[in-house]
Amino acid sequence: MLQVxxxxxNTEKALSSLAKRNKDFSATVESIISVDESRRxxxxxxxxxxxxxxxxxKIIGDLFKEGKREEADGMKAxxxxxxxxxxxxxxxxxxxxxxxxxxxxxxxxxxxxxxxFGKGAEENEVVYSSGDITALGESKLPHWELCEKHKLxxxxxxxxxxxxxxxxxxxxxxxxxxxxINFFLEEAMKAGYTEHQVPHLVNEASGYGTGxxxxxxxxxxxxxxxxxxxxxxxxxxxTNLYRDVLLKEEQLPIKLTGYTPCFRREAGSYGKDVRxxxxxxxxxxxxxxxxxxxxxxxxxxEDMVNHVKGLLNKLELPFxxxxxxxxxxxxxxxxxxxxxxxxxxxxxxxxxxxxxxxETFQANRLKCRYKGADGKTQLVHTLxxxxxxxxxxxxxxxxxxxxxxxVRIPQALVPYCxxxxx
RNA sequence: GGAAAGGUGGGUGAGUGGCUGAAACCAACAGUUUGCUAAACUGUCGUACGGGAAACUGUACCGGGGGUUCGAAUCCCCCCCUUUCCGCCA
Length: 422
What we know:
The protein is of the alpha+beta class. The protein is 42% helix and 21% strand. The protein has two domains: 4-106, Serine-tRNA synthetase, tRNA binding domain (Helix Hairpins, Orthogonal Bundle), CATH 1.10.287.40; 121-417, Bira Bifunctional Protein, Domain 2 (BirA Bifunctional Protein, domain 2, 2-Layer Sandwich). It has an eight-stranded mixed β-sheet. A hairpin with a 2-residue loop joins strand 17 (402-403) and strand 18. It is elongated.
């Protein structure tokens, strides 16, 4: 959620940046500013009424002590009057506050200056690419066929016990999952991230904290009886560890990592793009999260991008990095880099990581702040990235490293797997 | 699921309807002392929204929401959460 004073003082700048999202927010922002102005006016009115009432109450108290009971009783009339007036003002005020909140929920984060205008995914900029597109022979197979051939994943079984999008990993397929999770966690640990095992269900407040609520309510599985949500990413519990927290400057940056399964309803997506491992309702992911001082966040974003680069290089996968254009960027993000791995057998790019700086957008709702050297309290910047999500990595590994004898496991992963080939 | 006890500032924790935005202690910050560190001493020290160039100042906030009262952290009602005991259980 953006901060009203920011919008008020930087209206032009905010609007021109927001326009990069290929949507016009000027009407909403204008409403925010004008509603807030009315709000402040009413607040002032109320404050003055209350100030008067407080003053009178104090005098009455003093009169009572002096035993001037009648004089005191005489003053009560005015406070009753004030109370009536306050009621009206309060009602209007809370209405305006609610209105303001709803309006603020509509405005996404202001894109970073490096973000370009764009309507959608086609306009994302490739800012880096690494590795050659793997040349595969005629016998190349997509991962879903490789999975069947080598008995790594049984999609049908998953359908039976749960439904589509809930695969069952078997044998070397299961061990590969475990190996990847451990590999990613170890690498994150070496890079200074502290591993956390967090709950896989979160409450409503956490959903609001990181911005999944109210914007993406339908994307999360909701456990009605207990009013809890299954996490769509470890970002939610990890970042919310620092909800309502006042940090000291020297504690920053805070670097967190964790493995969790992720649950996404993915309502409305069907077809060939979601075949096999390309899109699932449940998948595994290792997430990295940072909380930082405002002035450091973009350097740290760079570090996170480099960390993910390192992982993909060790897995010997060809990939590219995209800087998302305004139209394709998530609601809460200021700047996002997507990582895509080329899948030679499917002949398409698969998104395997999304690494973003949210600046103060999440921190504002989270109320995660720190006290700077100057004694001033300010919001932290939050960042996160997938490092990495498993299913498409598995797809890419299987497809890119297949040969006539099966599938080769990249060297870096062998110690974690315990086998060199599938 | 049943019973009981609790929820107060960055932390611990007092708090009799008005002198309580809130004692005390810890932490933090500034200073004095000191060869350095430590200790000791002195002072400062909550958050949010307003007004003001500033000093300063108004209001709100003691889990959340209502109510009683001229006046509520304090009394009443509802809700939420935590802890402990019992039950169930990996």
